[in-house]
Design the sequence.
């Protein structure tokens, strides 16, 4: 009887230990409590540059920053400070007024210049990047601001819209935009629905985070599972429940 | 407490817990039922006591009227008729120089009705869609905040003829913009408004499932993030802020529960579960520090602060009277007490 007991108990613990080894990578997903700047730097590393052939600057989302920095008010205030210092730009992604993209200003500038090289609107874009970007750190620009303060004429503003640097918001006001971001937004929306669908199809509509990250990414999630999971957690599209086996992602009841 | 229901009935309750039991029912003192000749025809949306005493109260309803009642006789003192359904009304709690009631209707104009003269001649123009909530500032008697379905929330000084003071902008853009038409407070309809008890900050909730805290003197978004505050109400949502707590709390109806957040840090404290259907409104009584909430399941629940509960003693089977120690008498009839 004693022999049996000794054999069973170490086996049970052994199995758990083996599983823990695989878990270590997944749970730091929730354990980050650094600054917003560190969070953005890390998220930017998750962005798949190869997919877009380096034409797009690496974009992180605001909801992803919330998943890495647990206190949202602190995260918002730090992002606002970074925005005011000119280190990051916040871009309104078209599909959801709530989802905002965060890009480092340097990345944005280099990529936009590269994309607009040799095109007819290159002059207007360079003037915009040199004069407007450093001066105004807002998400949007108004008509009188562009014409009077920065001296842009109407044809030049049309060229900027054609280049993809500005998107129309309202009569006489424009959002800042990333040229060529349409593909990114398409992959992002499809990927978000695909990863959410993985949780929805699970039994009881809940999945352990470690198991979700261990699964094969569905074909629609081209930006990577980790990228989408950060976004789902931060946007509160799934509830995070901490259990003894790690974090559990559960769809909210409503 | 005054309450209005979706069948047009209004009931007055006595909130005192005279039975000293932990679970008690508040009795209805009187009611304006369906048999009353002047009862509202449709749902009563907003009710408010006259701010200075309980001799009068006002009620507005989907039957396009605002009625002013005398409490002691339960008769109508005055009626204001409008062209559109009334979503919300509010009378200033600190006003001494005016008796204006601000009324938000389905039309884009905010109407100000004067109780003294009985006319509603003052109109505030600026919104483009229906006005879902109005609230006077508890600090300045002429400052009014309005929230509309066109995603905008505006602050007005009613003495000024030229328009609103500030349109709240969630992105805190540069104030040099001459055209404020693009400023939005939320990415959906703005459903509810509540000033903090000192009037320095304003909370707004919107159908984009967000709640925002604004500095009411310059209209700046303080960027306090409460997370997702579910809001599917198509009418106004009545939420409330505590008054007299060391860090103020905001109580927001969240589906069939009530979510409690600290106002200035955005942290969610708890969710109060008790209703069976969606909660529509809640109100805080600062004298007793109690919260009352009304819901679609036809119940009004009273939430009282839970004090330190004594461990039940198995030996004594005593039905100890539950009394809030804040209200206990320290008075003794003995002559020796110094």
Sequence:
């Amino acid at each position: 009887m004693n022999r049996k007991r000794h054999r069973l108990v170490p086996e049970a613990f052994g199995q758990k230990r083996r599983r823990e080894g695989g878990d270590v990578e997944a749970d730091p997903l929730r354990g980050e409590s650094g600054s917003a700047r560190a969070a953005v730097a890390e998220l930017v590393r998750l962005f798949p540059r190869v997919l877009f052939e380096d034409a797009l600057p690496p974009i992180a989302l605001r909801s992803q920053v919330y998943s890495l920095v647990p206190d949202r008010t602190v995260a918002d205030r730090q992002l606002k400070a970074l925005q005011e210092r000119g280190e990051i730009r916040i871009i309104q992604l078209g599909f959801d007024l709530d989802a905002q993209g965060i890009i480092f200003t340097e990345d944005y500038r280099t990529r936009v210049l590269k994309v607009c090289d040799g095109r007819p609107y290159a002059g207007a874009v360079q003037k915009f990047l040199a004069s407007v970007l450093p001066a105004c750190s807002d998400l949007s620009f108004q008509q009188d601001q562009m014409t009077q303060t920065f001296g842009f004429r109407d044809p030049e503003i049309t060229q900027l819209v054609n280049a993809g640097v500005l998107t129309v918001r309202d009569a006489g006001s424009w959002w800042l935009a990333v040229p060529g971001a349409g593909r990114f937004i398409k992959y992002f929306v499809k990927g978000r629905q695909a990863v959410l669908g993985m949780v929805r199809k699970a039994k009881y509509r809940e999945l352990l985070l470690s198991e979700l990250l261990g699964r094969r990414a569905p074909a629609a999630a081209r930006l990577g599972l980790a990228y989408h999971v950060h976004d789902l957690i931060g946007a509160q599209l799934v509830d995070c429940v901490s259990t003894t086996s790690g974090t559990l992602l559960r769809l909210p009841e409503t | 407490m005054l309450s209005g229901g979706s069948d047009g009935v209004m009931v007055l309750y006595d909130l005192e817990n005279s039975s000293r039991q932990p679970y008690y029912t508040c009795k209805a003192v009187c009611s304006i039922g369906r048999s009353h000749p002047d009862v509202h025809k449709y749902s009563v949306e907003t009710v408010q006591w006259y701010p200075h005493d309980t001799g009068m109260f006002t009620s507005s309803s989907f039957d396009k009227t605002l009625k002013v009642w005398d409490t002691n006789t339960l008769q109508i003192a005055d009626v204001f008729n409008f062209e559109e359904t009334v979503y919300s009304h509010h009378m200033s709690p600190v006003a001494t120089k005016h008796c204006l009631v601000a009324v938000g209707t389905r039309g884009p104009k905010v109407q100000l009705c004067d109780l003294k003269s009985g006319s509603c001649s003052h109109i505030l123009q600026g919104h483009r869609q229906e006005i879902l909530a109005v609230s006077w500032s508890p600090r300045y008697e002429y400052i009014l905040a309005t929230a509309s379905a066109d995603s905008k929330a505006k602050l007005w000084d009613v003495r000024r003829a030229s328009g609103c003071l500030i349109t709240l902008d969630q992105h805190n853009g540069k104030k040099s913009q001459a055209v404020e038409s693009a400023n939005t407070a939320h990415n959906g309809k703005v459903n509810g408004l509540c000033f903090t008890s000192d009037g320095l900050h304003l909370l707004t909730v919107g159908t984009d499932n967000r709640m925002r805290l604004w500095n009411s003197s310059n209209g700046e978004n303080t960027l306090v993030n409460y997370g997702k505050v579910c809001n599917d109400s198509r009418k106004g949502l009545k939420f409330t802020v505590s008054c007299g707590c060391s860090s103020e709390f905001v109580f927001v109806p969240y589906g069939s529960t009530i979510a409690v957040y600290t106002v200035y840090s955005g942290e969610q404290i708890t969710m109060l579960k008790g209703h069976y259907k969606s909660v529509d409104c809640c109100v805080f009584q600062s004298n007793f520090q109690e919260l009352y909430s009304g819901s679609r399941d036809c119940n009004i629940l009273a939430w009282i602060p839970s004090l330190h509960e004594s461990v039940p003693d198995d030996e004594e089977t005593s039905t100890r009277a539950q009394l809030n120690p804040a209200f206990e008498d320290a008075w003794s009839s003995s002559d020796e007490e110094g």
Summary: Confidence is low (pLDDT under 50) at residues 315-320 of chain B.
